[in-house]
Design a protein that fits this description.
The complex is a heterodimer. By secondary structure, chain A is an all-alpha fold. Helices cover about 75% and strands about 0% of the residues of chain A. Chain B has one domain. The chains are: A mainly alpha, B mainly alpha.
């Protein structure tokens, strides 16, 4: 069981790096969906106190539905309507951003070994995985130009926050559920609507076209 | 206490259901009046503080709610005139969104649960983003996208920070809670590294929402493209609540014994914001974007005031009220000028004082007030902060602050005078946009309020600012 949890954490980080290197939007959406599904399994794998099982099931089910199915479906619809397939020229190239991502992973491991965990029973990979995923998400949002890629970056960032939230799921389960699921659902929903308008207004989802406003 | 939250919240769906585009703004007015009445009732008979309650009417809540309810009332009256002139646009989402925004802001003010505050701040972003897109053109769409994406990123980081804070007290014997009072009571027993990391993330997260440099990049675009009415509520209202949230987190950090670090971070970001605003205000031809940079500046002043502590903290709470009301004057009058000329750059706009005999001079008076000219109230609050800096022996900080204020005064004066003075002559003109009672009286009333607060500050308000400052280790003097 423990090695299986290890595997999940490692896969999540590998997916982070893959996303930084990937230019095909379809593959990226699918990968984010897989990451979401993997993360959905975590609350069930990590649950320790049986009275929290109900919350774990709720969190897992909600995460699977939103991260694994609903949002990927929304994204696929968006790229089909805008008929785009690739992220063309990111602000920072694919290889450099992957290197930056790898540096982030290393720093996340170094940093989290210095933060004392109040709960000794927590899994050792949890904090570094959360921090490296947050970092990957930030990199994706900042360096990519297509609106879909930026939303995917936001999703990855949220995935990182979600992993961290699992540390607290025994202490304040309702807060974690409300936080990560509500935020994700609501924010992406509004972003989806705006994306639809961008596509209609500019006939593209390229945020490069959104450059009329500057000083 | 629930009334001030539920009244606007319940009216939002009503606004969505009212079929008439002409009558719908009245729902907004009803919401503003009910909210003002509710706040007045709260002041008349303050609810007793209960331990473990998620909502509390503390001094910080009093300062911010007083400001926002006055501002919202002015904005709601203005909206009657403004939306009547914009009959071409469906205002269903606009009116509903403004009411939701008011409800969410009220929750932020009253919430003593950091998780609830976070949810409410998230709700303010989602409620306000569609409103920026009111004009439905390419530019406002771009502004909406930037606002939504940058603020969502900030809020996601704030969520991570909130989790960090929860974790700092999750050990054996910790409060295992996100209630502000529990966290402050636990104070030194909180895990220090987590509290520090949490403060950084929350400062970055809510700082994005507040528009502190270098996290302000959405601000000029959003304020530039949104209707002046929304700009007033964002710059004068919403930013104050992000400031309030940072002040609350600072309370916890201070209790946990990491005060010096947090103060340095606030002073640093504050000065950076004022400096950045000075750079971009000079030579700014778009007067709505200029106001956005002025907002960045004043957020910097608020952060600086809290960071310096002592008398500067009292000044900061006074300033949050002054800035809120004066931004109302500026954005509402700028909105009138924008509509009358159909343009918002000094290339096309001139002679506003002649074309709009109320809004033009109000814009000028608002500029004088916001840049800290006596006898308007921002002068006294900025002076209190400056006094606090010098009183604490922070001569470099105080000197920089003063120098930057002078640069901003000169930079803004160039733009404002170009807009207000001169002969409108052949400048573009939009028919049916002259000053009317509904569009000119609200900014005028706010201006009178700013002047009165400068001439005479009631003892009750002084005590209020003092009590609010005391929560962050400051005082009023």
């Amino acid at each position: 069981m423990a090695s299986f949890v290890d595997l999940v954490f490692v896969l999540v980080v590998v997916i982070d790096l893959f996303l930084l290197a990937s230019s095909r939007l379809g593959a990226a959406i699918r990968t984010v969906a897989i990451q979401g599904a993997l993360l959905a399994a975590l609350p069930l794998l990590l649950v320790r106190e049986s009275h929290n099982l109900g919350h774990a099931v709720l969190l897992a089910g909600g995460a699977l539905a939103i991260k694994g199915f609903f949002i990927p479906w929304l994204m696929f619809r968006a790229i089909r309507e805008a008929s785009i397939r690739r992220e063309m020229e990111p602000v920072i190239g694919f290889v450099p951003s992957m290197v930056l991502g790898a540096v982030g992973v290393a720093l996340a491991f170094a940093f989290s070994s210095r933060l004392p965990l109040p709960d000794a029973g927590a899994h050792g990979f949890l904090v570094p995985t959360a921090l490296s995923t947050v970092w990957t998400g930030l990199l994706l949002v900042v360096t990519r130009k297509k609106a879909v890629s930026q939303v995917l970056g936001f999703l990855v960032l949220e995935n990182g926050v979600y992993v961290f939230g699992l540390l607290l799921s025994d202490v304040m389960p309702v807060m974690v559920e409300a936080g990560v699921l509500l935020d994700l659902f609501a924010a992406v929903f509004v972003m989806g609507i705006v994306m639809f308008h961008i596509n209609r207004e500019f006939s593209s989802l390229d945020t490069e076209k959104l450059s009329a406003l500057k000083d | 206490m629930l009334f001030v939250i539920l009244a606007p919240l319940a009216l939002a769906p009503v606004a969505l259901l009212v079929p008439s585009n002409r009558r719908r703004p009245l729902v907004l007015l009803a919401g503003a009046l009910l909210h003002a009445a509710g706040v007045a009732a709260l002041f008349a008979s303050p609810p007793p503080a209960r331990a473990g309650a998620w909502l509390a009417f503390d001094p910080m809540a009093k300062v911010t709610l007083l400001t926002v309810t006055a501002l919202f009332l002015a904005a709601a009256i203005y909206a009657q005139g403004y939306l009547a002139r914009r009959a071409d646009r469906d205002n269903r989402i606009f009116v509903g969104g403004l009411l939701l925004l008011l409800a969410a802001m009220t929750v932020v003010a009253l919430s003593h649960h950091l998780g609830l505050s976070w949810v409410a701040i998230e709700a303010t972003t989602l409620a306000s983003a569609p409103l920026i897109y009111f004009n439905h053109n390419a530019r406002s769409l771009e502004a909406t996208w930037k606002y939504l994406l940058i603020c969502s990123l900030g809020i996601a980081l704030a969520l991570l920070g909130t989790f960090f804070l929860a974790l700092s007290g999750a050990g054996a014997g910790g409060p295992r809670s996100l209630l502000l009072d529990d966290l402050i009571a636990a104070g030194p027993s909180l895990s220090r590294p987590w509290v520090r990391a949490a403060f950084v993330l929350l400062l970055v997260g809510y700082g994005t929402k507040m528009g502190l440099a270098p996290l302000h990049s959405w601000k000029p675009d959003a304020y530039g493209e949104a209707p002046g009415l929304l700009g007033a509520l964002l710059a004068g209202g919403l930013t104050n609540f992000a400031f309030l949230s940072i002040a609350r987190v600072f309370q916890v950090t201070r209790a946990a014994g990491d005060e010096a670090f947090a103060r340095d971070a606030l002073v640093g970001l504050g000065l950076l914001s004022i400096a950045l605003a000075a750079v971009f205000v000079v030579g700014q031809r778009d007067f709505k974007r200029m106001l956005a940079y002025s907002s960045v500046e004043h957020m910097g002043i608020l952060a600086l005031g809290i960071g310096l502590g002592g008398g500067a903290a009292g000044g900061a709470f006074f300033h949050s009220m002054n800035n809120g009301l004066t931004k109302g004057v500026l954005f509402l009058s700028a909105g009138n000028i924008h509509r009358a000329f159909g343009a918002k750059t000094t290339d096309e706009v001139r002679g506003a004082a002649r074309r709009l005999p109320v809004s033009g001079p109000l814009f000028l008076a608002g500029f004088l007030a916001i840049t800290g000219s006596p006898p308007f109230s921002p002068f006294f609050s900025e002076f209190a902060i400056l006094n606090g800096a010098f009183g604490a022996g922070r001569f470099v900080v105080g000197g920089l602050f003063l120098a930057l204020l002078a640069v901003i005064f000169i930079g803004m004066a160039t733009t404002v005078l170009a807009v207000v003075q001169g002969d409108p002559g052949d400048a573009p003109r939009v028919p049916g946009t002259d000053d009317s009672w509904l569009t000119a009286a609200p900014p005028f009333a706010l201006m009178v309020l700013v002047l009165l607060l400068g001439l005479f500050l009631p003892q009750g308000l002084r005590d209020l600012f003092g009590a609010a400052a005391q929560l962050v280790g400051g005082r009023w003097d």
